[in-house]
Automatic annotation (TrEMBL):
Source species of the chain: Lysobacter koreensis
Cofactor(s) the protein requires to work: Zn(2+)
Name recorded for this polypeptide: M14 family metallocarboxypeptidase
Residue ranges occupied by any Peptidase M14 domain in the UniProt entry: 30-306
Gene3D superfamilies xrefs: Zn peptidases
Family: Belongs to the peptidase M14 family.
SUPFAM superfamilies (alphabetical): Zn-dependent exopeptidases (SSF53187)
Keywords: Hydrolase, Metal-binding, Zinc
Coiled coil (residue ranges): none
Length: 306
């Protein structure tokens, strides 16, 4: 067995400094447009929903407005559903699934629950199809006080007034082949640690909150998504991405402790979706539809079990 080639930036076993981060950043190129793909869609929704700018990302020479979509006629007497996408900018269906949910289904919940949707939390990374922000920081490990990530800090400020009133939070993600081919090796190189290959699951799965598991909630989502795309099986060790499978298609993480987006509120019902867009059994349209099905099932379950 041959050893994998070392990551092209840095020295194996030595964590990156400013020079290595700058070299990494210089290699990232814009591949798609946040303005064309996301902002233009949100603009078309302004006649039906409130749109708030909750911050701006500053990565000179680039500036990105951070936008969230809110129910028109917000009612503080109602519970709140939070939907987040694009925490990792390369996870395309999270962004477009969130927007598709608003376009096609948000009106169904008018007068029943407040909706707050942040569809693209990391627009710099969205444009470059990357996991990290421009400082080689993973926003989805940065939802904590004094966050080093602009993206995470901005969302936390937006949610501060309502975080204890959120009933359900669905954080939309993907697990892709590039997790193994690019992002895991880059992480090991950045942190000066050994590169330890893993296995990409083929199919959709969920991450529950280990501190407050809600198995029936998670299974309601799995059942809805199974009508759209296939559910990831456990590997030979009974795991998905190194974590024990606690129910079909479900693993658990310590969401708050790990600084993950799904742990940002005190919601009773929380989940992180993981779609597998590289599967030969799934199309981009199916991936978007799976995200939409997950959001709808999550909100429906939460409303029925308040």
């Amino acid at each position: 067995m041959t050893n994998p080639s070392p990551y092209p930036i840095g020295t194996p076993g030595v964590a990156w400094g400013d020079a290595e981060r700058a070299e990494w950043r210089s290699r990232q190129t814009r591949k798609r447009s946040y303005a064309a793909d996301v902002l233009s869609v949100i603009d078309q929704l302004r006649s039906r929903y409130d749109v708030v700018e909750y911050g701006q990302l500053e990565y000179p020479p680039d500036t990105y407005p951070l936008l969230a979509i809110k129910s028109n006629g917000w009612n503080d007497a109602l519970p709140t559903a939070l939907v987040t996408g694009g925490v990792h900018g390369y996870e395309t269906s999270g962004v477009h699934g969130a927007l598709q949910f608003v376009e096609q289904h948000a009106a169904d919940y008018a007068g029943r629950i407040n909706l707050l949707v942040a569809p693209c939390i990391s627009p710099w990374a969205y444009e470059r199809i990357h996991r990290w922000n421009a400082n080689a920081i993973d926003p989805n490990r940065s939802f904590r006080d004094d966050s080093p990530a602009q993206e995470s800090a901005a969302l936390m400020r937006l949610l501060a007034p309502v975080r204890d009133r959120v009933l359900v939070h669905v954080d939309l993600h993907e697990t892709t082949d590039t997790d193994e081919s690019e992002f895991r090796p880059a992480l090991a190189a950045r942190d000066g640690k050994p590169d330890e290959p893993g296995e990409i699951p083929d199919g959709f799965y969920l991450v529950d909150d280990a501190a407050n598991p809600q198995p029936e909630f998670q299974q309601a989502i799995i059942a809805a998504v199974a009508k759209v795309t296939h559910i990831a099986p456990a590997d030979a060790n009974g795991q998905i991405i190194g974590s024990p499978v606690v129910a079909p298609g479900v693993i658990e993480y310590a969401l708050k402790q790990l600084g993950l987006c799904a742990g940002i509120t005190d919601a009773r019902y929380k989940t992180t979706t993981e779609v597998y867009p590289d599967s030969p059994r799934a199309t981009p349209a199916q991936c978007n539809a799976a995200q939409v099905a997950a959001v709808r099932a999550a909100i429906d379950y939460a409303l029925a079990h308040q």
